[in-house]
Amino acid sequence: MREALLRLAGRALAPFLLDESRCPSCGRAWSRPPGASGSLCPDCLAGHAPPAGAACPGCGARPAVPQPAPLTCGECLRSPRPWGRLLAAGPYDGRLRAMILAYKFEGRLDFGRQLQELLLAAFERGLDDFPELAACDVIVPVPLHPRRLLSRGFNQSREAARLLSARRGLPIAAEALRRVRRTVPQMLLGAAERVENIRGAFAARRELVAGRSALLVDDIMTTGATLEECARTLAAAGAARVDVLVLARA
C-alpha cells in the first residue's frame, strides 16, 4: 500500500520537478530539456564533437582545409576501402582517447554510457550526409579472440553499440563474425605488418549476414587493416553492403 501511494505521489509531483542530472563527464548538474535524451551535458557533448568540416567518407580522414561536404580523399580514390561509408565519433586524441583507453584497460566501466552516446550521435549525424545508412539491417561488432575476451571480460565494440541498437531498433549480431586465429595486438605493429597479422583472422556466419546490410562497429580505426579484413570477410559471406562506425579515428 505504501509503495503504491509513493508511486502515485511521484507521478503527481513529476510535472513540478526539474529533470536534473549530473554529467558523468564533467560532474556538473544540468537540467535536461523536455524530450532530450542522453546523460552528457551540452558542453561536454559539444566538446566531444568532431572538428569542423566533413571527413572523407571512405576512411574518415579530415582534409587540411575543412570541406563543407564529404569529399573522398586521394588515397581512397586510388585504393577504395571494402565498405560503403565510414563514420567516426571523433579523432583519437584528448578526452575521447583517454576515455577509450581507461574503459578498455583500466576497468573504468563508468565511461561506457558516454561512449555509447557518442557512437549513437556519430551515426545520427552521419544520416544527414548519408541517408542510405538508415537502411542498415544489423550491427556487427568487431570480435575479440576468445582468450582476450576472457581476460578483458567484455568486448568494447559490442558494448559501445548497445545504445545505438536500442534507439534505432537494429539487432546486434555478435556471432556474425568470430576470430579464428589469435593475433599480435595491432597497436604493436607497423602498417604493413598489421595487414599480414590480421589476414585470415576472421570467419563469418553466412546465415546471419547474407543479403543483409551490415554496420561494422569498432572502437578505433588506425590504418583500417582490421576493419578491412572484417569487411571483406562479411562481403565474402554474402553481405549486401558493409558500412563502418567507430568511436575514434586515429
Question: How are the SSEs ordered, and which strands pair?
Answer:
Elements: H1 2-13, E1 20-22, E2 29-31, H2 42-48, H3 74-78, E3 86-91, H4 94-105, H5 112-129, E4 138-141, H6 146-152, H7 156-160, H8 162-168, E5 177-179, H9 191-198, E6 202-204, H10 206-209, E7 213-221, H11 225-236, E8 241-249
Parallel strand pairs: 3-8, 4-7, 7-8
Antiparallel strand pairs: 1-2, 5-6
Helix pairs in contact: 5-8
Defining traits:
11 helices, Rossmann fold, two-stranded antiparallel ribbon, four-stranded parallel sheet, 250 residues, single chain, alpha/beta
Number of strands: 8
Low-confidence stretches: 3-18
CATH fold-level label = Rossmann fold
Largest sheet: 4 strands, parallel
Into how many domains do the coordinates divide?
A: 1
Average pLDDT figure: 88
State the end-to-end CA separation.
57 Å
Give the % helix: 25-40%
> What is the subunit arrangement here?
single chain
Name the CATH class.
Alpha Beta
Write down the overall geometry. Answer: globular
Backbone structural class:
alpha/beta
- State the order of secondary-structure elements, H for helix, E for strand: HEEHHEHHEHHHEHEHEHE
Q: What's the total helix number? A: 11
CATH architecture level-2 label: 3-Layer(aba) Sandwich
The share of residues in extended strands comes to: 15-25%
Q: What would you report as the Rg, rounded to the nearest angstrom?
A: 20 Å
Q: What's the arrangement of strands in the largest beta sheet? A: 3-8-7-4
